[in-house]
UniProtKB/TrEMBL annotation:
<dbReference type="Pfam" id="PF02386">
    <property type="entry name" value="TrkH"/>
</dbReference>
<dbReference type="GO" id="GO:0005886">
    <property type="term" value="C:plasma membrane"/>
</dbReference>
<dbReference type="GO" id="GO:0008324">
    <property type="term" value="F:monoatomic cation transmembrane transporter activity"/>
</dbReference>
<dbReference type="InterPro" id="IPR003445">
    <property type="entry name" value="Cat_transpt"/>
</dbReference>
<keyword id="KW-0812">Transmembrane</keyword>
<keyword id="KW-0406">Ion transport</keyword>
<keyword id="KW-1133">Transmembrane helix</keyword>
<keyword id="KW-0813">Transport</keyword>
<keyword id="KW-1003">Cell membrane</keyword>
<keyword id="KW-0472">Membrane</keyword>
<dbReference type="GO" id="GO:0030001">
    <property type="term" value="P:metal ion transport"/>
</dbReference>
<protein>
    <submittedName>
        <fullName>Uncharacterized protein</fullName>
    </submittedName>
</protein>
Length: 94
């Protein structure tokens, strides 16, 4: 559920940002962002015509989609340092 929430919110943020910076129809931007996040290689053909900021957003969406939100979350998480304690006991033989 967390992966779905992170992915959906990231896609929503990318679409809103592109919608602000680019004067293109919403459905074309939606298709472009979903395609970039899924790294499927499909495009509507207008990627070369968008601004530099739009291209950077698409590049970042592609990179985030390739890594995956779970991998990114694990790489940013701080590992917990645990002290290993071995049990001590007298072993009786015979």
């Amino acid at each position: 559920m967390a992966i779905l929430t992170i992915s959906a919110s990231f896609i929503f943020l990318a679409i809103v940002t592109l919608n602000i910076t680019e004067p293109l129809p919403f459905l074309k931007l939606l298709f472009e962002v979903i395609s970039a996040f899924g790294t499927v290689g499909l495009s509507m053909g207008f990627t070369g015509d968008i601004s530099t900021i739009g291209k950077l957003i698409i590049i970042f969406v592609m990179f985030f989609g390739k890594l995956g939100p779970l991998t990114l979350a694990f790489s940013l998480a701080q590992p917990e340092i645990e002290k290993i304690k071995y049990p001590s006991e007298d072993v009786l033989t015979g």
